[in-house]
Amino acid sequence: MSHAGTSGESPPAARRRRARPPQPQERAAREEAAEAAHEEAAEEEAAGERLRQLSIGDGDDDDREHNRMIRSQYRELISTVQQNREAMLNSKSNRLTEALEEANRLFDGVCRAREAALDAHFLVIASNIGKEKASELHSEMSAFDSTAFAEDLLTFMGINRTEVEETDESEDIPGGFLPTGAWQTIGEEAPKYFRRAPTFHYMMGSFKSEPPVPKQRIERQRKASRRKAERAMPAQLKKMEESHQEATEKEVERILRILQTHFEDDPNTPISFFDFVIDPNSFARTVENVFHVSFLTRDGLAKIKLDEDELPIIEPIKPSEGGEEEDSRAGARNQVVISLNQKEWKEIIETFQIREAMITPPYQATEEEMETE
Amino acid sequence: MSQRKRSKGLGCSQLPDGEDDFIPTQVERRSPEQLNQKVSELVQFLLVKDQKKIPIKRADILKNIIREYKDAYSEIIKRADRTLQEVFGLQLVEIDAKRHIYILINNLPCAQGELLCRGKEQEKMGLLLVILSFIFMKGNSVKDSALWEFLHLLRVYPGKQHGVFGDVRKLVTEEFVRQKYLETTAIPLTDPPEFKYQWGPRAEKETSKKDVLNFVAKMQGKDPKFWASQYSEANKATT
């Protein structure tokens, strides 16, 4: 810096740079570049001074200035190209070609590696842009006017163009007023073009993984009040239950009598369980029969066992026989679950050729009573 | 050790042998009821995972559902896909064969007047369709600056909060990309770095160039053949 002071005049290149009005985007960059160049220039001046003292000709000074100019022009060219990339890519613009020609011209004045390096840097950028331009041509897409497309979309969305432009933004945006449901309109059209899987949601929401603690207290309170409520209604409830129980008991007794009657006719042949309970005319009644027979076995009034063919048979138990009391007790401890669906029911009817029900259907009146649960 | 041999025998893709605990023999593990149970669990898992439309990773499936049934993985996946197709009309598609990522798509053509997605979702799909159309018509790849310039025309700005979409930039660059509707790659040697957008694998599966061209044609009131090269490209790719 002191050397610059002694030289008495600021280097012409730096002065020229300061004089040029700096563009807003690159002011900082320019200032930096200017400072760097200033320092550079200062150093060069110092070197120049020394060389001058070594009595080399004036041509070097001009050379140095010339090189500085070239460098600054290259830098400017590079930044211009980078800033205006979009404009350069426009297929209708020749600006890239112009920039290349400018660089060509500058290159004529280049004689040192330093400036050539800048030229190479510029070439890299320019060729990138060139490649992009080429790829845009290469795609061979028919001309697609995106602006027109946008306009048509806005129309579809229901834009109201009667309003004059109230644009405070750039001039690219056309005037007009988009209604609130604009995107909803497109949204209704869009799903037709997608094979999008509808999302899965639980209708009633999902439950939380941790059991909620405070709820237990509420439950206890509820249970207490429930009991009280039940107590308040015994009179009514009992009546219904009794009639229900009575009907069942009556039915069970009736079935027992049927069983005993059949057995009396032929005491030595036990009755096939299926023959006994199945009603070929009604699946529902078959199930009821099985239900009622289960009471008989539970109360030790009948027993079910398997015969030689592993088919179940049923026979009544005479309660007076002492020897069989043990059996009945042992029998009472066995639990069997019988399952029967319609298909199996039909198969059994086919297999055993069951034509009529051994347990005659109860009277119509009783049936209706039982069905009013 | 023996488990690795078993996997090869089944011909399924290579499974990670990460945590190889002691695994009981095949016979004990693969009763039909147990397999059915796993298939059902997987179907439910996939349906729930698909809610956000973020692709499902095989690692998640293995960790949460398959667990010790690793050797039956391909069988379970195949059957889950069949269930999804036969019961729900959906399809399980692998969009990344290397990283094993799956999505669910609709197997049935979208019938007219069906409201399968709700308001907010529909609006996003509208925006997505517009973006996908733009990308296709412009040659399958656009720069982000070009895309935003186009969206400007529709009153959608990256810097401004949008009345319907909120943070649009986030929606486009993050949500749509995560859902694999869009794919973004950096353009080399650009400063500041620029990106280009293309169709993502989900878009490739859920819609087609032909559908999108039809949309553009409908909007502009023209025949799709008006754009000759796009039309021929759209008809070429009929997968």
TrEMBL record, chain B:
MAGE domain span: 35-234
Domain of life of the organism encoding this protein: Eukaryota
Residue segments, region Disordered: 1-23
GO cellular component terms attached to this protein's record: nucleus
Name of protein: Melanoma-associated antigen G1
Origin species: Lonchura striata (white-rumped munia)
Gene this protein is translated from: NDNL2
